[in-house]
Inverse folding.
């Protein structure tokens, strides 16, 4: 079996990488729950906290920030995996109240995969919090399981394919010995070709993804496992309706810190977990 390692992967059209917080520092946050002294006359103020909505960063290139104190400015830097700067912007939010939604946007070409996003968020008294979000997920290469027509059962003859994928999953997890990534989850996304109607294909892909998820749980994958079906909404090979195309009958196995955003599906995925 080919050796694998945990890597940061570029975002793709099909599966975007999860954004995960990797660094938080602040002279204010260092107080850890205590009131902090303001530079303006020694006034005591509440602990400085921020909330960052990163759900639109992957495809729409904007983030929403809320600060527990009246804000000052926000500096944002987007870099490629190799460290080249894609965008470097600064927004002044002075005059906005605490907890107001602060939107920071940036321009980014579709051919520029993101490696990291760095934020420095100031309150009006120039306390700041640094956060860095990195694109991190590991797609598991595998041989596709062949299901019988209209069936979501994993036949015994297909088990060797899943055994091989299980070995690769365990190899990836073994690289995270320090448990740096606390929310690792195995995501399984099921897909179909265009034979049959949309509603039926969606249900079939969900059942098959669930069967795969249950198989991996029974085999011994110890991290959370989530599954979702996408039917014929994300075709690997574009075909007319009612086209039998084996390359579209597939499943994605992804280990990530957060649910991988899916583009072009027409609905918000509802990832379901197996016990």
């Amino acid at each position: 079996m080919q050796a694998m390692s945990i890597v940061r992967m570029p975002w793709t059209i099909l599966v975007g990488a999860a954004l995960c917080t990797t660094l938080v520092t602040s002279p204010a946050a260092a107080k850890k729950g205590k009131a902090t002294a303001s530079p303006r006359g020694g006034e005591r103020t509440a602990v400085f906290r921020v909330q960052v909505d990163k759900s639109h960063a992957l495809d729409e290139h904007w983030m929403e920030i809320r600060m527990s104190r009246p804000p000052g400015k926000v500096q944002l830097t987007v870099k490629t995996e190799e460290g080249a700067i894609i965008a470097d912007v600064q927004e002044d939010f002075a005059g906005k109240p605490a907890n107001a939604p602060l939107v920071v946007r940036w321009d980014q070409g579709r051919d520029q995969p993101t490696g990291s996003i760095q934020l420095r968020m100031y309150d009006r008294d120039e306390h700041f919090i640094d956060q860095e979000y990195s694109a991190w997920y590991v797609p598991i290469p595998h041989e596709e399981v062949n299901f019988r027509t209209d069936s979501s059962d994993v036949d015994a003859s297909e088990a060797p394919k899943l055994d091989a994928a299980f070995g690769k999953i365990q190899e990836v997890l073994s690289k995270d010995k320090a448990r740096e990534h606390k929310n690792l989850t195995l995501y399984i996304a099921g897909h179909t070709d265009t034979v049959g109607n949309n509603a039926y294909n969606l249900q079939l892909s969900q059942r098959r993804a669930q069967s795969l998820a249950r198989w991996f749980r029974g085999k011994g994958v110890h991290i959370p496992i989530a599954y979702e079906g996408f039917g014929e909404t994300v075709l690997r090979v574009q075909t007319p309706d009612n086209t039998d195309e084996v390359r579209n009958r597939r499943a994605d196995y992804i280990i990530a810190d957060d649910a991988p955003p899916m583009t072009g599906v027409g609905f918000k995925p509802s990832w379901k977990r197996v016990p």
Summary: The CA atoms of residues 71 and 123 lie 4 Å apart. The first strand starts at residue 18 and ends at 25. The chain has two domains: 18-134, 140-273. Residues 1-42 have pLDDT under 50 and may be disordered.
